[in-house]
Design a protein that fits this description.
The two termini are 23 Å apart. The chain folds into two domains: 120 residues, no CATH class; 56 residues. It has a two-stranded antiparallel ribbon with strand order 1-2. Helix 4 crosses helix 5. The protein is built from seven helices and four strands; from the N terminus they run ααββαβααβαα. The protein is mostly helical and 178 residues long.
């Protein structure tokens, strides 16, 4: 028999699952960050528990970090990447130009107007950045408040099992040697 850290693993899995659930709910509630559902579907966690260490890693799409924490002003070196992503978003959302009264205008040159809208949005992001919605950070903070007590308790239960197993091994091996 070897030490598996079952209680610690259960506690970390419970924490990971709860954090993912709260993050997904936060993302759905927010106005920014939920477009295609790709980010929502990608939120996940991995737990690894061994005798010497344990780890919990959260995973989600690369752009999730920008949705969560926001994005500051940028140098013009990042402008092209933002523009291409914004252009795809403009096409997907079927954004259209409006006149001075706020009414939709008829398409004159659809491709060029979509590019113009994407350029303006990308330029604003590059100049001013945007504030994140905290979908993951807030979820992590909320669930982390409950974590230390559960982890300590689970770790102690696993440690007791490990010590009991070790003492049994010593007794078994010690009796065979006598």
């Amino acid at each position: 028999m070897e030490f598996k850290g079952e209680n610690l693993s259960k506690a970390l899995n419970k924490f990971g699952k709860k954090t993912v659930e709260v993050a997904a709910a936060n993302l759905l509630r927010s106005k920014r960050g939920y477009d295609t559902g790709k980010l929502l579907k990608s939120i996940d966690y991995d737990v690894a528990v061994t005798l010497n260490a344990f780890s919990l890693k959260f995973n989600y799409e690369d752009y999730g970090e920008q949705i969560d924490k926001g994005r500051g002003k940028s140098n013009n070196s990042q402008g092209g990447v933002v523009y291409q992503n914004i252009l795809e978003w403009v096409k997907r959302k079927k954004l259209r130009p409006r006149n001075s009264k706020g009414q939709y205008e008829a398409w004159k040159n659809k491709t060029q107007q979509q590019r113009s809208i994407a350029f303006l949005v990308a330029r604003k992001i590059n100049r001013f950045g945007y504030e994140g919605n905290g979908f993951f950070s807030n979820a992590f903070k909320q669930t982390y408040k409950k974590l230390p007590k559960e982890i300590k308790k689970a770790y102690m239960l696993d440690f007791e099992k490990f010590m009991s197993f070790t003492l049994d091994e010593i007794k078994t091996n010690g009796n065979n040697g006598n």
